[in-house]
Amino acid sequence: MIVYFRLLKESFSFAMNALRTNKLRTVLSLLGVTIGIFSIIAVLAAVDSLDRKIKKDLSSLDKNTIYLMKFSFGPTEIPQWKREQFPDVTYEEYQYLKSSMNGAENLCYQFFTKRENIKFEAKTVSDLNVVPVSSEFDDIQKLDFQEGRFYNDSESNSGDALIVLGHEVAQNLFENYEAIGQKVRLYGQNFTVIGVLKKQGAGLFGDSNDSSVFLPSNFMRRMYGDNADFLTPVIILKPNKGIDIEAFKAELTQKLRNYRGVKTGDMDNFFINVLSGFTDFLDGIISQMNVVGWIIAGFSLLVGGFGIANIMFVSVKERTNLIGIQKSLGAKNKFILLQFLFEAVILSVIGGIIGLLLVWIISMVLTKALDFDFFLGTGNVLLGTGLAALIGLISGILPAISASRLDPVEAIRTGM
């Protein structure tokens, strides 16, 4: 065992010597490994960070949550011209389903709408996300409050001018002042602030609750009616835990078809978007990103492997005399083989570590610049190091074999 430790120490010394004496050649040769490891780990780290963000943002929602509306969250075979003829879901349909869907734990009625500006005295917050929604929303997607509360069923049904502010909106409007009870202006109306949410951080698609405000959907209906072109209604359903989601979807489909009078044989004129289907769609995109990253990085690793092999062949040539002396003193072929293999692995791992260091630095910079947590996990660090070692092992095997098979007499003579 001591012999192998000494062998590893010698190999490390030779590798460091190669870096010192042939800086440009070694750096250029290691560049392929560095770029390859950087490419792979950068893609994997970005994908892992995105995956963690998706899970964090959707953690408050049941994956079986359903969005019932005229649009599909994912690809569909129904042509666009046909989808444009689908009617919007209505408040009456929401009430009907709420009273008739036995397997539903909760339903709420929401509008998707355009971004707006909100004012408090002389201060204005621009381009915020407005979420008109009924009171059950807080039961479907649990909201964390810094202060105050969400509006109740009575306030929601009557469409009272009440509003819940995201953390960032409240900070920009009131700074250190008490927000609860203050009057803010939106849609030309005064709203009373009844709640402020806790800080959430950047959202999956740029938005988050921090830059959002929540108000009763019936306020929008009272102000603009049900057919305003800037309002897209959606019914959100949360099924009971443990329910057969396919059976639930089938029941929902049949009830809405009957309510709308859709004839047998005609296609559905609505979409049932299950959140799990949306996350599966995102997972597919993430998997494709991983594959593309591996393909791109594979070419860099191939070039890096040739670079390491080049270094090792040159190293064998430069140390032919030394190899002959070692063999003449009793060094076995296995010792020479392992010596050069260790050296190749060490050189390759150095290139890999540089690549990992670059990923770590860039992830730290982007995390601060974009307010998005880029995560370089231990698994990815170990994967990068392992890949670098594997490239070194594969690239160094032929030079190491050629060194181990040298005839000691010929080696000494050639090196003189």
UniProtKB/TrEMBL annotation:
GO terms for cellular component: plasma membrane. GO terms for molecular function: transmembrane transporter activity. Residues 295-408 form the ABC3 transporter permease C-terminal domain. The lineage of its organism: Bacteria, Pseudomonadati, Bacteroidota, Flavobacteriia, Flavobacteriales. Keywords: Cell membrane, Membrane, Transmembrane, Transmembrane helix. Residues 26-254 form the MacB-like periplasmic core domain. It is a multi-pass membrane protein. The keyword Secreted does not apply. It is found in: Cell membrane. The keyword Transmembrane helix applies. The chain crosses the membrane at residues 26-47, 292-314, 335-362, 374-398. This is ABC transporter permease. Belongs to the ABC-4 integral membrane protein family.
